[in-house]
Amino acid sequence: MGAIVKKTGPVDTNERVQALRKEMQKENVQAYVVVSEDAHSSEYSAPCDLRRAFITGFTGSAGTAIIETNSGRLFTDGRYFLQASQQLDQNWTLMKQGEKGVPTWQEYLQNLENTRIGIDPSLFAAEDAKEISESLHPSSSLVSIARNLVDAVWQDRPPRPVEPVTVQPSQYTGMSVDEKLANIRESLKTGKHKAVGLVANMLDEVAWLFNLRGTDIPFNPVFFGYGLVTMTDATLFVDSSKLTDDVYKHLGQSVKVKPYEEIILACQQLGQSLKQGEKVLVGKTASLALAEAVGKDKLVIASNPINEAKSIKTEAEQEGFRQCHIRDGAALTAYFAWLEEQLLSGAKINESQAADKLEEYRSKQEHFRGLSFTTISSTGPNAAIIHYSPDPEGCATIDPSAIYLCDSGGQYTDGTTDVTRTLHFGEPSEEEKNAYTRVLQGHIAIDMMQMPVLATGTNGYRLDALARQYLWEDGLDYRHGTGHGVGSYLNVHEGPMGIGMRPQYKEHDLKPGQCISNEPGYYKDGAWGIRIENLVLIKEIQTKYNFGGKWLGCEHITMAPIQTKMVLKELMTPKQIKWLNDYNAEVEQKLKPLLKGDARALRYLEKECKAI
C-alpha cells in the first residue's frame, strides 16, 4: 500500500522514535497511539498517511503502535506476524494479537496507570475514543493533541496528492447531484434520527454524493474531501487546485466549494448555529475532531444515509455493472488461456508476473481505469493465505500440478469488478475435488437463494449459513465473510450490508439494486486454497406462491468460466448441475463476441464452458 516499499530486513527507527519522544515531552504525554487509518477511515491510505509504517518500519496494512517513554509496541494480527518480525528493530516489541495472553492494543491501554495517552483526534472515530476513554484506569486519561506528532518528525513525508478531480457523467450515475441532495435531505427529515444536517467524512461518500471521482487513494477512485449538507446548503471541502472548470460547471449553484482544511471551522459554526434540540448527523466512522467541532450534545452518531443510498444502484449503474463484467470476463478468460498455455509448455511464470499479465489484458478493455485492489495470484500453499499478494522480489513460481487461486478486479468508468477463480492445470486430488465441489455448492446456494422480505430483517447475516452448509457436511468451513458490498466505479469494499456473521450485517437489510459479492471458500493451511467469487445484484423476484408479499433473489453479473475439472458430479444435485451448465453457457455466449480475434482464448472458453 502506498509508497513505502516492503523490506525483509529490520528498519532502523532509532532516530525517528527518539524524536517522537521529544515531541511527546512537549505535550506532556507518556504514551502516544499511532493507528493505521487516515482522517477518513479509509481502507487504503495515501503515502502521506502511512504514519504507523513510518514510525515502526512495519509496512503491513493492519496494526497499531503504542510508544511510551521507554518502550514501543506494535500490535498486529496473525496475517502479519512473520512480516512484522522481519521489519521491526530493537525499538519495538511485537504484540501478536489473538495469541493466548496477548492483549489487544485497547486492552493494553486499560492497564496503564498514571499515564496521559496522546492521540490525534482526526484519526480516531468519536465512538472508539469514547469507548477507550471510559475503559482506562482512573489515574490515566486520553489526551487529544491537535497536531500529529509523527508528522512533526517525518521530515520527508510525501505531500498530499493533488491529482485532478473528474466528473462522473450522468449516463453512468443515473442520478444528478440535485436529486441525491434532495433524497438525503428527505432522509434526514423523516429518518429514525431526525437531523438538520450531516457530515460526509468517508471519501466514497463524498465522491458518490457529488458525482465526482479522483485518484488520491490506491485502487479507489476517490479524492480527499468532506461534504457538509444542511436543509438549505451543500458544501464540498476540497483543495480547489484539484478542480477543473468542468467540475465547477458540474457543481453549479447547488454546491459551494471551500478549502479542505476548513471543515473543522464549518462544523464549529454549524454547531453554534443550531437551535434548541436540533442535531447534526455524522457516520459511525466520523472522527473525534469532527464530533468535538460540532459539539457532542448536538450530534447524532449513526449510520450515514448516504451509505444506504449509495448501496442501492440506479438502473444506469446496474447496466454499467453488467457491461463492465462482460469486458472484464473477456480479459480474465484471455489471461487464463495464456497462463495455461505457458505453464503446460514448461514456461516458468511466477505469481507476480502472472498478475502483471492479467493487468495488461484488463488495460486493453474499454473504460478501464485501473485495478480495484492488489491482485491475489497464488499457487499451492500461498492460495491458503486468504489475504496473500505476491512480492515481485521473491514470490513463488506457479506450479501447474497445484491449485492456482486468482482473486482480482478492475475499475471501469461504468462499474467495479471483483472475481475469484480457482484453477488446476494438472490432475487435482480427490480431496481437492471434494472441497472445490463443496465450495461451488455453497456458491450456487447463494446465487439461487429466494428470501422473503421480512419485517424482522432481510439481511445477509441470515444467508451466511446457505454458503457454508455443504462444507459443514464434511466438517469444513472458512474464516471470512461470504459477501461484501461493491461500489459503482468506487470502492471494491462498500457497506453497509454484507453476507456473513458480523453483527452489523444484522442491522442492514439487503435491498433490490445492491451489488454484493458471493465468495465462499476453503483453505487447507500450508497446502492449497479454494474460493469461487461472483458479484450479484439483489433483485425482487416472483416465486411460486409469494407468501407474505415481496421476495428477493440474485442476478449474477460476473462473466468468467467456472472450471469443471475439479467438480465431483456425484456430490451435485441435478439442480446444481443445471445451474453450472447454464452459467457457463451464458458466459460462453456473452464472451465469444469479445474474443473473436483471440483463437487461444476462444478454444479455452469452449473447453472450460463445456457442459458436464
Short note summarizing the structure:
The protein is an alpha+beta fold and 612 residues long. The protein has 20 helices and 28 strands. It has a 6-stranded mixed sheet, with helices on both faces.
Describe this structure in words.
The protein is an alpha+beta fold. The strands form eight sheets. It has a six-stranded mixed sheet with strand order 4-3-2-1-5-6, with helices on both faces. β25 and β26 (528-531) form a beta hairpin. α11 (263-273) runs parallel beside α12 (288-294), α14 (315-344) crosses α15 and α14 packs across α20 (599-608). The protein is globular, with a radius of gyration of 25 Å. It starts with 13 loop residues before the first helix and ends with a helix.
The main β sheet shows up as: 6 strands, mixed
Query: Order of strands in the sheet with the most strands?
Result: 4-3-2-1-5-6
Low-pLDDT windows of residues: 1-7
Q: How many strand units? A: 28
Distance between the termini: 42 Å
Count of alpha/pi helices:
20
Helix coverage percent? 25-40%
Specify Rg, calculated over alpha carbons: 25 Å
Based on Cα principal axes, name the global outline.
globular
Task: Name the beta content range.
Answer: 15-25%
Mean of residue pLDDT values:
95
